[in-house]
Amino acid sequence: METFESLVRAEFSPKNTFLNTASSGLLPARTVTALHEAVTIRAEGRPLDPLFEDVELARAAFARLAGVPVARVAAGASVASQTGLVAASLPAGAEVLTAEDDFTSVINPFYTRGDLKVRAVPLERLAESVRPGTALVAVSAAQSADGRVADLPALREAARAHGTRTYIDFSQAAGWLPMEAGAYDFTVSTTFKWLLGPHGAAFLVVPEDFGGLAPLLAGWVAAEEPWDSCYGPVAELARSARRFDVSPALFTYTGVRHSLALIEELGVTAVQAHDLALADRFRAGLGSLGHAPLPAPGSAIVSVPGLGGRQGELSRAGIEVSNRAGNLRASFHLYNTPADVDRLLDVLAG
Questions:
Q1: Nearest-angstrom CA–CA distance, 25 and 97
Q2: Please, which residues bridge with residue 235 across strands?
Q3: Closest listed residue to residue 100, CA positions, set 123, 73, 66
Q4: What pTM was computed for the model?
């Protein structure tokens, strides 16, 4: 019988100490194999039907992880483009509330509109800052820079009290933090970080009534009958969130399908427990070295002020982390072990 550890060891064989999932995750062996097969299909001139089927299988797997009907999930290419759809749906002069220094792709499309009132407040004050007239709150579930986890239940209640829509980016959380996407109006997640897929895919979850979104990027794949809609204007848009799809990067979605299958097999709750135990081990070890990480309880991301400059040294030692504004950012995922944590601490102590 396979265990969490045996399943993970069968899928990953990194050649270094990789503690940088917040930048991009490792690809499982099954995903690498599927990508090779997809390339072979193209190279040999075989029909691409299996690759288009993978898009739908990946969509369905993400819907299960997000806890929503598959009809609410749109398949796109990036968080920024999905945010752009949400931004375009707002009337001129609408107020958008964001967290200070949130990841650019989550907030910049609201600024580039030029006719929206964008207000940024500290993450800890986000829920209390929702007010009458706030049209939308946009925030990352977990902050990219330092791993802080937003108080989403408080935000949800505040938004409900004021009739405010919510847009939550789960890119730094999906895969280790349960999503409950149905509790919000819109959610988005890229797939190349904690979901372990290739670059080039991002899923948008929309309300059943589409939340006022317009299918601005609709092409033939957004039609109810795509293969009958390749020429001329689309006669009928998809009756589901697929109306917001853009033409998919087929190789990417083939990879995503298999990566999501692994996350489902392991279970997000088990992954969360594993990841947080390692992050807490690192935090405790930092204390013994006289370093204090930025406060981010309950997060798989740990950011340490003043140590970012050692990123190059660590990389040369075979340890991959990030330097974010002078902070060392380490992120712990299912393929990491206590030995990885201890190795990082040993080098930092040296």
A1: 30
A2: none
A3: 123
A4: 0.96
Residues 166-185 have pLDDT tens digits of 999 999 999 999 999 999 99
Q: Mention every residue, 6+ apart, whose C-beta is less than 8 A from residue 306.
A: 291, 326, 327
| Beta-sheet strands, E only, within the chain | 17-18, 73-76, 95-99, 117-121, 134-140, 165-169, 186-190, 202-205, 301-304, 319-320, 322-324, 327-331
DSSP helix/strand/coil, 319:
strand
Q: Minimal CA–CA distance to 215: which of 88, 60, 94?
A: 88
What φ, ψ does residue 136 adopt, rounded to 5°? -155, 140
DSSP secondary structure letters along 63-80: HHHHTS-GGGEEEES-HH
Per residue, the 3-state secondary structure of 270-283, as one string, reads HHHHHHHHHHHHHH
Q: For residue 143, give every residue at least 6 positions away whose Cβ sits within 8 Å of its Cβ, in sequence order, or none.
A: 99, 101, 102, 103, 123, 149, 150, 172, 296, 301
